[in-house]
Each structure stands twice: as C-alpha cells, then as structure tokens.
Amino acid sequence: MSSENSPVPPEMVRKVASLARVRVPEADLPAWTGQLGRILSYIGQLEGIPEQPLAPAPLPATPLRADAPRSGHGAEALEANCRSTVHGYGSVPRVVGSLIP
Amino acid sequence: MTERPAGEAARGVRDTAGEVAGGVRRAVDVLEDALSRVRSGDDRVRAFLEVTSDLAREEARAVDVRVAAGEDLPLAGVPIAVKDNLWVAGRQTTCASRILQGFRPSEDSTAVARLRRAGGVFIGRTNMDEFAMGSSTENSSVQTTANPWDVSRIPGGSSGGSAAAVSARFVPAAIGSDTGGSIRQPAACCGVVGFKPTYGRVSRFGLVAFASSLDQIGPLTRNVQDAARVYQVMAGEDPRDSTSSREPVGEPEKAALAGFAGKTVGFLGEADAEGLDPEVSANLAEARAAFRAVGATVTTVSVPRAGIAVAIYYVIASAEASSNLARFDGVRYGPRAAADELLSLYIETRTAGFGAEVKRRILLGTFALSAGYHEAYYGRAMSARQLLSEDFDRAFSQVDVVVCPSIPTPAFRLGEKTADPLSMYLSDIFTVPASLAGLPAIAVPSGLSREGLPLGIQIAAPRFAEETLFAAAGALERELAFPQELPTGMA
C-alpha cells in the first residue's frame, strides 16, 4: 500500500487500463500517474485495517418473488434499442472469434 | 435577496398536490407554469438535459381525468424532474454520458412508475455528473449546471441538475440518486432538502448502477415534509429489486411534524475538528442551539472511523463501478466505435465514450480488485466499512440521531477543483459515512454564509428509522427557518 504522495509507475497505469479496456495515450500518462498516485496515497490511511474481511453482520434473507412468468414488452420495444435486426433478432458484432464481419 | 415570489412558483409538493386534488387548479395549468419557469430561467442554470413538454402535457391531462374520477393522488399534478440515470419509458436515459447516447429504456424505473401512479408529472431529465461520479456536476459530458444562488458556482453533484431545478423553483420536487452523498451534497449547495433513504428502502429497478452496495434513490424538495411525501410514494418492497426491503415504511410525513423534544441528538465529534470552515462551525453551533430550543438533549458522539470514510468509499465504490460499467462495451448500448477486431471495439468505444473521471474511477477500481492488490485495498476497505458500521451502531446506542454539516464549505466556484480529483472527493467527507453504513440521512438547509451561499446540516438515523429522522429534520427546519426567497442568482 502506498503511503507516500508519489506517482504510481506508468507501467501500472498501462496494465490497469488494459485490464479495464480503456486506452490511456502515452502523452497523458504523467497526469494519470500523478493523480492516481495522490489518490492511492490518500487511501493509504487504511493501512492499519486488517486485510481479511471481518465476519459480516447477519443480513436479512433475500426476499423471493413468486416464480411466475411475466409478460415482456414485446419485440418492438426490444428492437427500439437495436441498431439493426435480422430475422426479428437484434444484430450485434461478432463476439466469438476475433473478426467483426 | 428578492421578495418571496407570489403564486405558484412559491408552492411546494403538498400545496400543489392539495390544490390539484381539491380542484382549485388543474394539473395542466400547474405544468404550463412550471414549463414557463424553465423556459425563462434554465438558460442561466442549465439544470435540464431534456424537457419533455409533450409527454408531460399528456400526463397532466391524464392526472386531471383521474382527479375528476375521484382518485386519491398524493402527488396530484406535481411536476417532477428526474435525474438522467433513472429509466423513463421511451425517453433517453444517458447518465450524462456519451456512451449511453440514444439508449431508450422500454419501461419506467420502479421509482418513476410509483411517482406517476401517485399523480406526479414527469417534466424532464436533469443534468448530473457522468454515471453519478462527481461532486459538482462538472463531469457531465453535456453541459455545466450553475448554482441558482450564484451562477458562477457549482450546484454540487452528482444530482446537481435535480438540486438546481428545485432551488430555482422550476419544480417542487426532483429525484436524485445518492451513492456517497449525491443527493445530500448538492441539496446543501443549493439550499434545498435532500434525503437519502436507508439502503434497500427504495427499489433500484431501472436505476443505472454505479456502486450497487451503496446506490439509493431519494427526493430533493424545498422542505422536509415534501421530501417525506415523495419518499413515502417511492418506498417499499419491489419484487424486481432483491435488495428492496419489506420493512414497513410507516408515516414519515406525519413524523416530520412530531417534534423532537425528549430525544437525544449526538453531534459528530470528528466533524467539529480543527480546520473546519469557521462559518460551517458557527452554523453547527446554531443547529446545536436549535435542537436545544426544541427540547432535545444535545451531546457529542464519536464515530472514530468517520475520518477514513472517504478512503474506504473510493476503494469500494470504484471497485463496484469498474464491474458495473464493464457492460458498456459498444455491443449492447449506445454508440459503437469503428473497429475490425473485438478487443479494439471494446477499447475504442470505452475510450471515446467515457469521460476522464469515469475512466479514473474504473482504473482505480480495476487496480483495487487486481491480483496482488485485492486484499491490501478492497479487503481492507471492506473490513473498515464494517468497523465504521459498528461505530455507528455504538453511537446509536447513546443517541437517536447523529448530526454533522452536510458540506465542508459553501459551494465552490465552477472550475475550482476540476484539476484536483482528490480535493473534489473530499467535498463528500460528511456524506460518505452514512452511505457506507447504509443509514438514512437528510440534508436540511441551515443558513447562509456571509457571501449569501447556503449552508447545510445533515442528520443520520439508524437503519429504517426514517420516522425518527424526519421528526428531527422537521423540528430543526422549523427552528432554523431557512429563507424561502428566490435564490439570488435567479433574481
């Protein structure tokens, strides 16, 4: 845990951005490393807290609703948010395999 | 300050609903007055992203028919503005983000559906910090909203459009969402009442998720009883949100008139520390005197981890946001970047679609959840959150409510903190603790600074003790008598 007010390494920002599916331009890296470093330094206040979660307070049971079918809003409502439809189905980019047709 | 405006502009939720229900005014006329106020004033405030005049006229006409048929409608004809992260059937819901432009939900959020059922008239979508991430509404991808008390200042955030719309007297009520203070902080900045219910009180079905263990929906109004009425309409179990509670809602509106004599008010010791803004500190002393004057016992109470709440919050909220916002990838919602490969599609869509603050939180959350850092950041934050909750439990074994300022300073200037995210995060230092503990909390306008800007007092109560909270807030409001004049920036 960072305890000083220091920038995080640029490679860390690159790695996290890649995991988050966001691109951080190289020119912007110094600003990001400085800002995130300052925020993480502030979060360093938590240093004395145990890392392992404490036994949680008991929660009320999740209420269950009746297992009964409900009507939807119909194909038209769904299609309203589709850019294109094919044979009555919403058409989206190919997500299995690497190339988008 | 100008004289209190005569006529409809001065009326709140209960007055308006009473007049429409009683046949004194028609919902369509109430609506036209509201639309006219928006037309003449919103070019200065920029609270609305969209004013849905045609839809609102249809709704108002329907309300008049229902009133004529004898329906009992607690919000009869009350024009209500809704933050742009709540679904309204057929209208855009964008969270003030480029990545959701064009998204039109097919049904109402439960909160909006309940408001409409009660006779409320949806008048438009209000501006907000993108995905509710911010404290000044400057993170909107669309526009900047101004504070009606001084248009060079922020309205607070993230529900800044909702707060400004009520403060400027465009509408008697607006709906916001509160994850770490996003109803209470802007309410305080704009001199209106802002209420965040207990976690689980109001269904989040149809609220675009930011941090699911914290998000709550609540009202912004001009007075405490109005907030209680709007809350009462929205609250209660909903089979479509498994976190919504079955606890009885009770009668918060009636409770707001009950007084607070004989109760114990604990002022948060950690808040009134060295370094607190002198005007905020003096206002806190006035609130102490006000509670004594209504017959309450006033004491100091400690919530030791309140001081680390912002650190806890920014780990947990960012971690949850990084997960919740993973769904915005260009496949299912909004604009889609041109790309010839799937990973590029995700990256380019998200890079173009999210603003800087949203990216910052996603990166922070992704970091806090990543291998090698998860325990040190997320694990510790979760432990600290529980310790903070236990601190509140101990405090509530001694007092009925815990009181502190709503905001550390009056509204700051537009642009003043945009380059310093941490400084912006600290604007929520007094609101975040109640969010982490899931408590109901309300911001009550409590006075004006020397510069004529609103100050606010926040009251928190134990989970599901909304009636106690409204009793305290109502008593404080009556004693402090915050000025009801039109805000200076609207004069």
What does this protein look like?
The complex is a heterodimer of chains A (101) and B (491). In chain A, 31% of the residues lie in helices and 4% in strands. Chain A has 101 residues and is mostly helical. A two-stranded antiparallel sheet of chain A has the order 1-2. The longest helix of chain A has 15 residues. The model of chain A has no long low-confidence stretch (mean pLDDT 83). By secondary structure, chain B is α/β, with parallel strands linked by helices. Helices cover 38% and strands 12% of the residues of chain B. Chain B contains 16 helices and 11 strands. Chain B has an 11-stranded mixed β-sheet, sandwiched between helices. In chain B, helix 10 packs across helix 12 and helix 10 packs across helix 13. The N terminus of chain B is likely disordered. The chains are: A mainly alpha (101), B alpha/beta (491). Chains A and B meet through helix 1 and helix 2 of A and helix 10, helix 11, helix 12, helix 13 and helix 14 of B.
Strand content of chain A: under 5%
Biggest sheet strand line-up of chain B:
1-3-2-4-6-5-10-11-9-7-8
Could you give the order of the helices and strands of chain A? HHHEE
* H and E order of chain B: HHEHEHEHEHEEHHEHEHHHHEHHEEH
The residue ranges of chain A in which pLDDT falls below 50 over 5 or more consecutive positions are: none
Decide which structural class fits the backbone of chain A.
mainly alpha
Briefly say what this structure is.
The complex is a heterodimer of chains A (101) and B (491). By secondary structure, chain A is mainly α. Chain A has helices at 10-19, 29-43, 74-79, and strands spanning 85-86, 89-90.
Describe the structure using short key phrases.
A: 101 residues; mainly alpha; 3 helices; flat; B: alpha/beta; 11-stranded mixed beta sheet; 16 helices; 38% helix; disordered N terminus
